Amino acid sequence: MGRTFPSGEIPTPRFKPRLQPTSRSRRRLGLLRGARSSIFHPSTAPSPCIQVDSRDIQGAGTTSISFPDGTKGIITRNGLNDPRSKITWRADSSSNHRAAVERCAIPISLFCAAVLAGAVSLGQSAPAEPADGGASPPVESWTQRFDRRWSQRDERNVLEELYDLAKDAQKKNANDFDANVRLAAVLVWQADGLGDGTNAKAQSGKQGWSLADKALAVNPQDVRPHYYAATGIGLYSEGVGILTALGEGLEGKFRSRVEAALKLDKNFLDGAPQVLMGRYFFKLPWPKRDVTESIKVLRVCTQEHPHNLRAKLYLAESLLDDGKKQEAKQLVDQIEAAPIGADPPEDRRIKARAQQWAKQHQGDLG
């Protein structure tokens, strides 16, 4: 009803480059006096490589690496117990030869820095050296991961991951605001994708509403629990039937929550509370139904939020019901032509619905 928000392991390389080259390394590379060894020249090097004194890079073995410009290759150390053994980097044959040669020509300190910066291509990043020698970089929290992955929620496995992330946090604290409000968002998004008159839609909507109310009790000044609770009530009503929901006395509960959301932030999620209220007037049965008021609310919303495709679709439905076929057709055409915006799953869902709705009302739209 409403818009919704929020194999085997590869061993880590054992070499650990030192960032500063020794005087011996500088002399060997011919960099101290500005000289350039023939190993850096494409005419004399069949495959660009760099040799470094073994005391500059500790460890042994072969490790694949790749640079940001696409150059790829390997680091190899031979002779594990031989102090005279060399560390060699050799460009992969598929890499750009010129780029590899230029890469070889940099001082070893920069080469080592590139490896330390994450150029090691082993399916995992090389461990970064903290600037202050202290703690490791901060790990992504579950809420950060949830919010980052939210834009992919139309993939089933991602939606399940989002649910699990929030559910695990809620198990630790049943009153966790972040967990409950995000679980509510997952469930109302799921319910919105289910058919009207189905038990599954009613259950998901009711669960979302209940979780949002839990979050609301913790922080009533946040717009999110008000909005998700109202959306959950609306979706539950579409699942059990609007008349049944009215008989359960849900109209007052719905209005109190959506009106609170409008008061706190009517522009939340690109005008989602306005969309919810406009749809409410359209979905009510006679004599409560008020298509004129629905058009009024949704028209203002589309003017203030021209990229809200759900508002345009709901406005088109209200306009067609009011006999304004041409304007309804224009809105459907706008939805079809609109690019995917800031919320890709939402826009993809509404585009698909608009296309289906236009096909069903092709004769009416002309």
Would you give an account of this structure?
The chain has a four-stranded antiparallel beta sheet with strand order 2-6-5-4. It has a two-stranded antiparallel sheet with strand order 1-3. Helix 6 runs antiparallel to helix 7, helix 6 (177-192) packs parallel to helix 8 and helix 12 (291-304) runs antiparallel to helix 13 (309-321). The protein has helices at residues 23-29, 97-104, 108-119, 142-149, 156-172, 177-192, 199-218, 223-240, 242-247, 250-265, 268-283, 291-304, 309-321, 325-337, 344-360, 362-365, and strands spanning 16-17, 49-53, 57-58, 61-66, 72-77, 86-91. With 366 residues, it is an alpha+beta fold. Residues 7-21, 25-60, 77-87 and 93-127 have low confidence and may be disordered. The two termini are 27 Å apart. The radius of gyration is 30 Å and the shape is globular. Among the domains are: 16-119, no CATH class; 266-366, Serine Threonine Protein Phosphatase 5, Tetratricopeptide repeat. The longest helix has 20 residues, at 199-218. The chain contains 16 helices and six strands.
Features:
366 residues; Serine Threonine Protein Phosphatase 5, Tetratricopeptide repeat; 16 helices
